[in-house]
Structures are given as structure tokens and as C-alpha cells.
Amino acid sequence: MTRVPVLFLFLLYLTAVRGTTEDGGYDDVAQEDDDLPDYTKLHWCRSPRLVNGEITCHSPRGRAYRTTQGTRCNMSCDRGYRLIGRSSIQCLANRRWSGTAVCRKMRCSVLPLIPHGSYTCTQGFVVDSRCDFTCTPGHRIEGEHTRTCQHGGTWSGAQPICSDTEPPKIRCPLSRIRVAQPGKLTARVTWDAPVATDTADKMLDVILVGQEPGSEFKEGPNIIRYKVYDQARNRAACKFIVRVEVRRCPSLSPPFHGSLTCSSDVTNHGAVCEYHCDGGYERRGVSSRVCQFDRNWSDGPAECVPMEIESDVKSASALLRQFFEKRRLLILSAPDIADPEYQLQNIMIQKADCGLQLRHVTLIELLGSPPNGTGRIKDNNLTSVVVEELRLTFRISGQYFSMVLVDKLGLDRERFISPISSEELFSYIDSFLLDEEEREKLELHHDFCES
What's the domain of life for this entry (predicted)? Predict the structure, then answer.
């Protein structure tokens, strides 16, 4: 009577044994017996265990005999675990299982770091762990923002990259206005070059497009540009304007019978304009005027008035001083007014009077012989003392025809002992006595005598 309850309790224990346990396997290993098991005798194996896995057993004798000889168990691991060992085992006659198995946690390979970025993972590099990628300031992710460790031990998606897509920042100086320097149409302008910044790169090359600071800028607006590139060739640019203002005075009109020569653009601030009078005229008033900052000319205008020659002076030096640096002298000497050479020369000079004026030449006539000699400049008679001193100063004889050409410095430049044509006389004057300015004026008025 006592054996029946014991057997009944043992059978209940076998029925309560489940396939999933908490231990990590066991050490009883035996070779599988392919012979038909003997079910008449009960040979029990220990209940198999598989941590983080599941065991499914099938016994030929039914569910109540899951750990008896002949029972076959299939081993499988939970998600995220890999089976190491036998996937199927059998309970043998020696009361041992035909193999063992364990479930190991599955892992993915370590993700490489990305330049200019980083990542953080929820569970490291095990299955189902999600890694989120971020980029440093100034960069943007291209590709997947996250990757997940998959059941097969591989990462989802592809490794992203951090691209520099943000352009640098640059700020130009403010636009400015500068007044041209006195006497010039330009202004020297300086400024501090801008500094560029970038969230990704520290070293940037700023490129100037336009004139360098500190150089001369012409009148009007001058556009200055700066541009900068970062290492990813992102571009930024800025610009500003340098405006040069030329302060101008009203235009000056040249005087009648005269002209103006100015040092600059005629009317700009600092320009100096000088007055010049034509031959036979002299300046009355200031010699030059300056354009001032307030856009007004200094002083008043000058005039060119007919040259007044004092013929009743008491000495030749007093007479000559009036011509010094103003006029050239052509001194014509003849024994008397009836001299044929004098008459021929006089006709040619009268016809060439306009050309003499253009070349700043005044004619002095000395006629007769001492002590009855006379002298005149046009209709103005010279004193006998002045006549004699002129003959002595320039060694002019009254016994025969001659002409002496005197320059503006009072020097004897050429002598003629026979009448010459105006073309010959003018050719000599133009070639040897005129300065550059006089040549330009003569060229400008060369047809004046024909009008």
C-alpha cells in the first residue's frame, strides 16, 4: 500500500518539469544510440536547461515522459542570442543527453568614428541597440541618422558622413566717402581688412577683389569686394563702396587776348590756374588763382591789356627793362628812310606784323647817322640818348643796312646784313627762340593772321 503513493508522486513530478530553465546547460554528454530504445524500462535523464533560450521536447511515450529514454529536444535561443552547440539532443539509455548547447548574447562590430561627428548607443553594440549620430557645429549629416544592431549581428543602413555645408561668415567695413586730395582727382583711402569666421574651419583665406587699402581711388564710386572659402569650398562674400568726391570750382574763362594754364582738372580743389597774355599785351591783376575747398576761386580775375611802352625814357637800359622776359626785339638800322634795302625790308615786316605779334616780337627802327639819328617804336619816338646807347649796346652801325634779333633775356641772337623774308625770320625764331608753351600756342593760332 505504501509504494503506490510514492510512484504517483514521482509521476506528478515528471509532468511538472518544463523545457525552459534558468541554469546554463550541463556536463553530461554521451553518444546518441541509434538502436530502438527499450521502453519497458524507464531510464530518466535530467531535465535540460537553456538560459535565454527555449527547449521543446517530444517523447514517444507521451507528454508525461519528456525526460525518459528516447525523448528528443530541440534547442532555440531568444531574440538577440546565438545558439552555441547542438540544436537537437536525445535522452540516451545511459541517462545522458546526446549533446549540450548554450545561448550567447549576439553583438555587432564596433562602429567606426566619423570625421567631424560622433554617436551614442542605447545598449552598446548588442542586438537591438540603436546608435544615434550627430555632427559638430557647422556640419550636417548626410545619410542615415541612426543605425540599429540587427538580429544577425549586422548594422542596419550605411555609415553616414558629416559634411560641411555651412558657409563662412564675413562682414565688410562700412561704405565711405572721401574728398579728393588738393590738386588731384583721386583720394588715398584706407580701411581694416575684414576677418572671416567659420564654425568648422579656423584658418580661412580672405581674398580681396578690387584695389588695395591705402591706394589712390579715382573719382566716383569704387566697389570693393571680399570673398572667402572654407575647406569644403563653401563661399561667403561681402562688398562696400568707396566714393571719391572731387570738389570743383566754377569754370574760369580765359582773359581777352590771353589764356589760362591750370595744374589739374581746371576746376577741382587745389588746382592752380595761371594767366598768360598774348604778344603785345600784359597782365593786370594776379598771376594765378587757386580753387579752394569751399568751391570758390581765390582773388579776382586778371586782365590782359595792351602793353604800354614808355618811349621817353632817359636810357637804353630803362627801355630794355620793359621788354625783359616779355618781348623779343627786332632792331632795324638804316642810313636813311630812302634806303632801298630798308624800304624792301619795311614792306615785308609790315605784312608780317601779325606773325611778329604771335611770336612776341617788337620792332625798333634806328634811322640816320649820329648826331642826327632818330629812333622809333611804331609811332613813338625815342630820345637821341636812347638811340645812341642802343647802337653802342648792340654795336649797330648807322652807315649801312642791318638787323639785330634780341631775345627776351636781352641777348644778341642773330644779325642780318641784307633784307630777309618773313618766312626766313619766322623759321629762325620758331626753331631757336620759342619755348614749348609758345610753340603750342603758335600751333593753336597759326591761322589767326589769315582770318
Answer: Eukaryota
Class at the top of the CATH hierarchy for domain 117-164: mainly beta
C-alpha 340/C-alpha 141 separation (Å) is: 113
- What value does the mean pLDDT take over residues 96-106? 89
* Contact between 353 and 386 (Cβ < 8 Å): no
- The architecture that CATH gives domain 3-105 is Ribbon (2.10)
| CATH number assigned to the domain covering 316-450 | 3.40.30.10
C-alpha cell at 365: 627802327
CATH 2.10.70.10 segments of the chain: 3-105, 117-164, 258-306
* pLDDT one-digit tens code per residue, 369-406: 878 889 999 889 999 999 999 999 999 999 999 999 99
Whether the per-residue pLDDT at 279 is higher than 90: the answer is no
Residue 36 pairs in a beta bridge with none
How far apart are alpha carbons 255 and 261 in whole angstroms? 12
User: Is the preceding peptide bond at 60 cis, omega within 30 degrees of 0?
Assistant: no
Span between the terminal Cα atoms of the chain, in Å: 168
pTM of this prediction? 0.47
Kindly write down the DSSP assignment for every residue of 173-219, as one continuous string: PPPEEEEPPTT-SEEE---PPP--B-SS-S--EEEEESPPTTSEEES
Beta bridge mates, 155: 149
Determine the number of helices (DSSP H) and then strands (DSSP E) in the chain.
Answer: 7, 27
Q: How far apart are CA 120 and CA 268, in angstroms?
A: 71
Topology of domain 258-306, per CATH?
Complement Module; domain 1 (2.10.70)
Residues in the chain: 451
